[in-house]
Amino acid sequence: MRKLNNMLSYFKIYFGVCFTVLILLSIIFHIFINGIAHISFEFLFGINVAEGDSLIPMVITTIIVVALTLAIATPIGIGSALFLNEYANPKSKHVTCIRLAIETLSGIPSIVYGLFGFIFYVVILGWSWSILSGVFTLSIMVLPTIIRSSEEALKTVPKAYREGSYALGAGKFETIVKVILPSAITGILSSIILSVGRIVGETAALTLTAGTLIATPRSLFDSASTLSVFMFTITTEGADMDKAYATAIILILTVFALNMCANYIASKLKRS
Q: Which of 128, 208, 209, 261 is 20 to 30 A removed from 178 (C-alpha atoms)?
């Protein structure tokens, strides 16, 4: 009976994995079939930027938004996870309120973040529709992901590591920097990778804060479109579905390249 249950469990897991991979491959196959024929040198590096015949402005904007958002959200998220896991009393009412706030933030739809960013950054602070408004809005949006995933990674570090470090005379801060963080670096980078995917694929929040202007940004106070916003715009307008499929291919390749870079950095840090 136990052997039969093990076989059934294995079959369910195997079937679930295969089904998920099949759906992913079917989506990618559909996008590539409909868009690969429309990718050309002119489409990637064309001169007529105003009509969306060049993806260079959107690619540049996407990279800027990802880099700045992670630069703001990552230190705050990891610091919050360290406070909750290493310093705070888990039975404290303040910690309970903080965890409730994190859970609430993780469940808020992105359009609500966009409305908040529009009211606070665009209107109240007067930053107008700009990359800076979009970056600060996305930073708030990805914070719950980074905090929760980083905290789970910190929990996987054995308590014996901490006790051994203290026994050798290291202090709290030195133990965190030299023992705990290196041991949890893989899980922390996984949270960053998840955040990259959400940042690259976000449309609603960026439409309300960064705008939809198709142009290469000259400063952080310029309005600009990311790849996902550009694809969403031309799809909803029904202007050119072929161009939308081609943009989706570039978006998938961009996310894949960013994830590969993050995994490479993670493997290097793990070896060191």
A: 261
Instruction: Name the amino acid, one letter, at 82.
Output: L
Side-chain-facing half-sphere of 28: CA atoms under 13 Å: 12
Nearest to 153 by CA among 10, 269, 7: 269
For residues 108-113, average pLDDT: 90
| Residue 46 pLDDT | 66
Q: 162 near 86, Cβ under 8 Å?
A: no
Q: How confident is the model at residue 239 (pLDDT cuts 50, 70, 90)?
A: low
Instruction: Count Cβ atoms below 10 Å from residue 211 Cβ, excluding itself.
Output: 21
CA 201, 99, 81, 206: dihedral to nearest 10 degrees? 20
Every domain of the chain and the residues it spans = 39-271
Let me know: does 193 contact 155? Beta carbons within 8 Å: no
Check pLDDT > 60 for residue 48: no
Distance of CA 46 to the CA centre of its chain: 29
pTM for the model: 0.83
- For residue 193, pLDDT over 80 is answered with yes
Q: Which amino acid is at 258?
A: L
- Say how far apart CA 155 and CA 109 lie, in whole Å: 28
More confident residue, 237 or 246: 246
39-271 topology per CATH = MetI-like fold (1.10.3720)
